[in-house]
Amino acid sequence: MRKRLIFPAFLLLVSFSCTEEEKPASTPKGILPMDSTAMVLSEIHELESALMVSSIRQDSTQNLYQALEPDIFRKYKLDTGRLNRSLRYYSSEPYLLDSLYHVVLKKTDSTAIFQP
Q1: 2-19: buried (b, 16+ CB within 10 Å) or exposed (e) per residue?
Q2: d(Cα 34, Cα 21) in Å, to the nearest integer?
Q3: Residue 89: enclosing H or E segment and its boundaries?
Q4: At what angle do helices 94-111 and 80-91 cross, to 10 degrees?
Q5: Confidence (pLDDT) at 33
Q6: Is the CB of residue 32 less than 8 Å from the CB of residue 100?
Q7: pLDDT score, position 12
Q8: Which of 3, 42, 58, 87 is the most exposed place for a label (fewest CB within 10 A)?
Q9: What crossing angle do the helices spanning 34-53 and 58-75 adopt, rounded to 10°?
């Protein structure tokens, strides 16, 4: 009798553990929408990339990055604290972070300029 109950109980446990997580309907207050976060991140990553491939010395690129990064924040009218809170929120769930970086990759792929 006991062996007969083990298999159905196992199936029941597996079926409940495999349900899809509910995704939040909207972002919480104070968190940048995913598209806005993706736009900011793509510009930051493009700036970092441009400086990495430049022929400027590393210490100079760090200084240049620190000088240019505030322009991105001014453009989007936000501060580092809000961006960091938004990134922590999106990082809290793997599917959110994955979705965010899919958007970032689309934006950077569409603006990428490849030189032979």
Answers
A1: eeeeeeeeeeeeeeeeee
A2: 19
A3: helix 80-91
A4: 120
A5: 94
A6: no
A7: 42
A8: 3
A9: 160
Q: How far is CA 5 from the centre of its chain?
A: 45
How is the chain split into domains, by residue range?
A: 33-111
Binning pLDDT at 50, 70 and 90, where does residue 10 land? very low
- Joined tokens for residue 69: 């990064």
**Rounded Cα gap, residues 89 and 74, in angstroms:** 22
- Tracing tokens 């309907």 back to the chain, one arrives at 25
Q: State the Cα–Cα distance between residues 49 and 108, nearest whole angstrom.
A: 11
Q: Cα separations (Å) of 105 from 36, 45, 69, 108?
A: 14, 10, 20, 5
DSSP structure string for 5-53: HHHHHHHHHHHHHTPPPPPPSSPPTTSPPHHHHHHHHHHHHHHHHHHHH
| Cα 5 from Cα 113, distance rounded (Å) | 62
Q: For residue 11, what pLDDT is reported?
A: 43
The structure tokens listed for 58 are: 């590393």
